Amino acid sequence: MTLRHFAKASLALAIVALTTVGASAAEQKTFDETAFAAVQAQGKPILIDISAPWCPTCQAQKPIIQKLSAEPQYKDLTIFEVDFDTRKDVLRKFRAQVQSTLIVFKGDKETGRSVGSTSEEAIDGLMRKAL
Predict the structure, then answer these.
(1) Is the pTM above the cut of 0.90?
(2) Rounded to an integer, what distance in angstroms lies between the CA atom of residue 97 and that of residue 88?
(3) Whole-angstrom Cα distance, residue 59 to residue 99?
């Protein structure tokens, strides 16, 4: 195999791998009451991510959530992002008092919550409670 053929084959494999990972990633969206209710009604797993752009703990959680949500077991997970500074109505709804709060649901039932965790293992354990 020539170097050119090897490079083309490697590129093709990389494209397939990236496409496969993207297809299995959890869906992320800004919190919307109607969309949240629809996902709950379908009985799907949900992660509520309450964060603030100025929060270092929240910023540490983001890449962990991104990494984990790309795993195949989380393909049906919907992640709703809630801005701590502007969505006080949502904070009241979920009884969340601080940023860096993660809440998981399986359909309409809350199955777990975490505040301030930046451990990949702990966040993964929390997310699994939604499955």
Answers:
(1) no
(2) 10
(3) 11
